[in-house]
Amino acid sequence: MLEIKALNLEVDGRPVLKDLNLTIEAGESHVLLGPNGSGKTSLLLGILGFPKYKVTGGSIIFKGEDITHLSTAKRVKLGMGIAFQHPPVIRGIKLGEMVNLCKGDTSQQVTQETRTLAKKLHFSDEFLERDVNAGFSGGEIKRSEIMQLMAQDPDFVMLDEPDSGVDIENMELIGDMIGELLHRRIRPSKRTASGLIITHLATITDYVEVDWAHVMLNGMIACSGNPDRIISEVMKGGYEKCVRECQETMDRI
Ligand SMILES: Nc1ncnc2c1ncn2[C@@H]1O[C@H](COP(=O)(O)OP(=O)(O)OP(=O)(O)O)[C@@H](O)[C@H]1O
Ligand SMILES: [Mg+2]
Fold first, then answer.
1. Nearest bound ligand to the CA of residue 16
2. Nearest protein Cα to ligand 1, atom 19
3. CA 160 to ligand 2 center in whole angstroms
4. Half-sphere exposure of 82 (CA within 13 A, CB side)
5. Which domain CATH number covers 79?
6. What angle do CA 216, 10, 48 make, to 5 degrees?
7. pLDDT by residue for the chain (253 residues), tens digit each?
8. SS (H, E, C) 171-200
9. Which of 50, 128, 132, 139 satisfies CB 3.0 to 4.6 Å to 96 for a cystine?
10. Is residue 177 part of a domain?
11. pTM, whole model, 2 decimals?
12. CA dihedral (167, 173, 179, 180) positive or negative
């Protein structure tokens, strides 16, 4: 699904990713952990091709196609989707209209299908009439991002901290919806969607099963492996200890 090779990325002239390698197969879900400022969000925005994030080396292959220099719009058309860490307020576009747009429907009228989806995400019809994210609470913004992704139904789903600031009941709902987006309820051999989930406390992994975990340090993937092991090492001893242990294991092999 996605193959990133020796990616170097700069934002406003500042290097943020250094020779980063990452491969995600079709049907796989990965989590990415790492300290604040290590480059996690920059990686997602670089994969999506935001103009501010300049590739200075390496390549991004998506579904077998080199997309390193493709526009964001074309990448989205190829099947990428994102739930942002800090999505903007969009005045003048109602949430219902945005959900329609995510489905490829340009009508401004909220359709029954959109209402049904909103209900699934525990949103009342009143929310669909509000400008996107205007005055939404932190948890409502997370649900709204997931709802837009579900309307889009991309093959490659990027989620930037979908679990931060979410209460316990909504966490279960968000976990369920992410499980649906990532085809986690169907047999692995039948899954076609893949995901990359950024998380700090790994709470989301109590609700969504994942296949791989990675730790990012200073713009590089410093350690990768079994999610249970990596998450428990990070929670116990922090990122650097986890990376040291990873490297010691590699040395032994
Ligand atoms: N537009 C920008 N101009 C200058 N520096 C930037 C810009 N955007 C990001 N950076 C810097 O790049 C580094 C990586 O930022 P990024 O948002 O990718 O971190 P992160 O790992 O997602 O952190 P967090 O866990 O806090 O969300 C940070 O030091 C940040 O200040
Ligand atoms: Mg971030």
1. 1
2. 37
3. 7
4. 20
5. 3.40.50.300
6. 75
7. 999 999 999 999 999 999 999 999 999 999 999 999 999 999 999 999 999 999 999 999 999 999 999 999 999 999 999 999 999 999 999 999 999 999 988 888 889 999 999 999 999 999 999 999 999 999 999 999 999 999 999 999 999 999 999 999 999 999 999 999 999 989 998 999 999 999 999 999 999 999 999 999 999 999 999 999 999 999 999 998 888 888 777 777 6
8. HHHHHHHHHHHCCCCCCHHHCCCEEEEECC
9. 128
10. yes
11. 0.94
12. negative
Q: How far is the CA of 41 from the centre of ligand 1 (A)?
A: 7
Structural domain harbouring 235? 2-87+155-252
Domain assignment present for 122: no
In a domain, 115, yes or no: no
64 Cα to the center of ligand 1, angstroms: 29
Domain count, the chain: 1
Cβ-contact 121, 128 below 8 angstroms: no
Question: Helix (H, G, I), strand (E, B), or coil: what is residue 20?
Answer: strand
239 lines ligand 1 (CB under 6 A): no
228 backbone dihedrals φ, ψ, rounded to 5°: -60, -45
Minimal-distance CA residue to ligand 1 atom 30:
37
Q: Which one of 41, 43, 220, 221 would you pick to mutate in the ligand 1 pocket, going by the greatest count of ligand atoms within 8 A of its CB?
A: 41
Residue 117 lies in a domain: no
How far, in Å, from the CA of 35 to the mean position of ligand 2? 9
Which of ligand 1's atoms lies nearest the C-alpha of 38? 21
Cα 15 to Cα 38: distance, rounded to the nearest angstrom: 11
- Token pair belonging to 229: 């092991």
**CA 41 – ligand 2 centroid, Å:** 4
Q: Is the CB of 16 under 6 A from ligand 1?
A: yes
